[in-house]
Amino acid sequence: MNGDRRQGARPTLEAVAARAGVGRGTVSRVINGSPKVSEKARDAVLLAIKDLGYVPNRAARALVTNRTDTIALVVSESEQRIFDEPFFAGIIRGIGSALSETGLQLILTMAQNRAEHDRLEDYLTGQHVDGVLLTSVHGADTLPERLEAMGVPTVLGGRPVGLTPYSYVDMDNRAGARQAAKYLLGKGRSRIATIAGPQDMGVGVDRLAGYRDALLATGIGERVAYGDFSEASGATAMQELLERHPDLDAVFAASDAMAVGALHVLKERGLSVPGDVALIGFEDSRVALHTEPPLTSVHQPTEAMGRQMVQLLVARINGDPLEQPVVILDTHLVIRASA
To answer: Where is the HTH lacI-type domain (predicted)?
Structure first.
């Protein structure tokens, strides 16, 4: 066994320097990617690292670079929502796949009320992370502005209401909703309702606007109830719509989860889908394939959204200029039996 790799001993930076025949500072510069090292010295250090099996200490590296190699994902929803609803799983998958190529670590945090947000702000601005991803931002949430003001690189998933962040990734929610409602009109449906999302979120506002765009030119009156994107809220909204508009013949729900809740209520009332009421959701999640009948839905590239968020954030952390700090991803309608 090599004398520099004693049983149970972890190789040190000093050992690498001695093996390479350079100073400790040169080893630090190589590890941290500094260009101020000769090619000969760099090769010697890298060979010594390989020979000794040296693993740089993350905490020590942070002292040198002022970087933690960690980013936070903040979701302003309950733990149950995050782990139950397909949207969040897709976002996290996309973020994870993009991060695997960077060496950055991810911490997932949830904050619903002001006290939780205040505690989280203290942590995020205390040099514990290099940058922050936020999704499911509600209108009253000032965390994005406060992070930017404190110099923490931040990228949002979804356009918030009431502020214009420097960088965010979103779906073309308005166009997707417009396409769904126009499709229902093209099928001869004339009493089309919508279950809209929360109006303190850009996604909720935009999907309702798309529905209204489609109906505007027809003179057909709108039929609107509101949910929070969850299945339970979709069921409650569907009951409300049937009480107010018992003759409705189509429903566009602003999420697949709300569409599933609506579907349960329609079946309980003895209404056939799509015979009596055509039904369209938004997301094209795996759930849409397993409803009875399978759910027509607007496809949104959720994993791509997560990947784009990471790409923008890494560029901001590295100080790279962003040619497109705002990215809008295309949506399209996937037609199945429910409509």
So the answer is: 11-65
3-class state of residue 302 by DSSP: helix
Supply the pTM of this predicted model: 0.79
**Which residue did the predictor score with more confidence, 61 or 36?**
36
How far apart are alpha carbons 157 and 174 in whole angstroms?
Answer: 16
Q: 176 vs 156, 206, 210, 233, 281, CA distance in Å?
A: 20, 9, 7, 21, 10
The model's pLDDT over 105-142, given as tens digits with 9 standing for 90+, comes to 899 888 777 777 778 888 888 778 889 999 988 887 88
Contacts 24+ apart (CB under 8 A), 79-84: 79/110, 81/230, 82/110
* β-pair type (332-334, 296-299): antiparallel
End-to-end CA distance of the chain: 70
Percent composition of the chain: helix, strand, coil (DSSP 3-state, to 5): 45, 15, 40
The C-alpha atoms of residue 264 and residue 11 are separated, in whole angstroms, by 62
- Structural domains of the chain, ranges and CATH numbers in brackets: 13-65 (1.10.260.40), 70-171+303-329 (3.40.50.2300), 173-300 (3.40.50.2300)
Rg (CA), the chain: 26
Give 49-90 pLDDT, tens digit per residue: 888 887 765 555 554 556 778 899 998 877 777 777 888 889
SS3 72: strand
